[in-house]
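Thread: Newbie trying to understand structure tokens

Hi all, I'm a second-year student working on a class project, and my supervisor (Dr. K.) asked me to get a predicted structure for one chain before our next meeting. I've only ever worked with sequences, so writing a 3D structure as a token string is new to me. If someone could post the tokens and maybe explain what I'm looking at, I'd be very grateful. Here's the chain:
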Amino acid sequence: MSSTTSVHGMWSSRLAFILAATGSAVGLGNIWRFPYTAGEYGGGAFVLVYLICVAGIGIPIMMAEIMLGRRGRQSPINTMKSLAREEGSSPFWQLLGWMGIVSGFLILSFYSVIAGWTLAYVFRAAGGLFTGAEAQMARAMFEALVSDPERLLAWHTIFMIMTGLVVARGVASGLERAVRWLMPALFLLLVVMVFYAAQAGDFTGGFSYMFSPDFARLGSRFGEAVLSAMGQAFFSLSLGMGAIMIYGSYLNSRASIGQNAIIIASMDTLVALLAGLAIFPIVLANGLEAGAGPGLIFQTLPIAFGQMPFGGLFGTVFFVLLVFAAWTSAISLLEPMTAWLVENRGFSRPRAAALGAIAVWLLGIACLLSLNLWSNVTVLGKGFLDLFDYVTANILLPLGGVCIAIFAGWIMRRVSSVDELALGERSFGYRTWLALVRFVAPACVILVFLNAIGLI
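---
Reply by user tm_fold:
Sure, no problem. This is what the structure looks like when written as tokens:
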């Protein structure tokens, strides 16, 4: 069994861990990416494939990552180093921990910039700028924001200060206290938006679009849609970036890893589905394109809110919801780096959080400048924001997920995983998890990886 506590503190309850891990998993990917990806691939057909992928890929790897974190009780780097030694394996497994921290660092650098857009849009909605908005006006509003480096820097700075302040306060006073009010508020705001969509939008059409599988609509894109659903299921749960591993290290030794992973994945999926029910009725009622891509949130929805009763108020609520989702994810991305600085450099937590936040903030400046002043500066044909997004989503995270599955399924002795998961070695639950984490999940993630880099 893992050591009793982490030097960084512990979650006060199982609920605190579930809220924190769900907060890590629930981010812009659920509320921003999921609806437009579902729209692009035919709504209900994509949702069904996505749910299968969550069960077969997401939950087994999440269980493995929580298990490794709880057994190691340290930052991802030191956890993998000590677990490799415990299992008599190569010390090079600590590179898995480094990969997670680097992934989180790179993701947060551009994630903070995009989160800054959501902050800016809260004030645009509240100020009535959506009223009467048409396509050209909405596009011009968004382009004016991303082309202005000073505005982007201001919002990026504010968001990183918000994130750093929470992490600096520690596990109990910072992370746990934040998620205890942010996550219930996020769910409440999302439910309010669904009720608004039911009253002011085409809810019947939106519901049908989300939950009526029509595989004929996928046509020749079926394989592409399946790979996209696999990728969304994996990335939506914050796997492979060290966040779930470090949160697992603060989990009580008696808590059931399997039950918690299922609850977290279910809540994460519920948010994605509710987001679709909040967005599609509004989009369809206004005759807008449901598969509008990334512009769905920042260019399409402002048009819809601008034409609907109380659109300014509910547009503000929606973007506050996005800020909360981004904030809870950002906290989890900064935590692994902060924990490592405390463990290996002897820094106080406030100093470690500040240094980590400043480093991310500086790299984020390169990301926001790549949208305007440095738009001609490219590496491998991509600006910094697109490059960091591509490298993390298509290389580091899938590679990290596969390595987590391999270590948990093949390197870790059965006696260790049985002990940590508290499942009998011959039980159906353990045998199913082992088969999924050894064979199914790695194979599926490798397929996503090969598809993302253009080899299949």
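A couple of things are worth pointing out once you decode it. The chain has one domain: 14-452. The two ends are 42 Å apart (CA to CA). Feel free to ask follow-ups in this thread.
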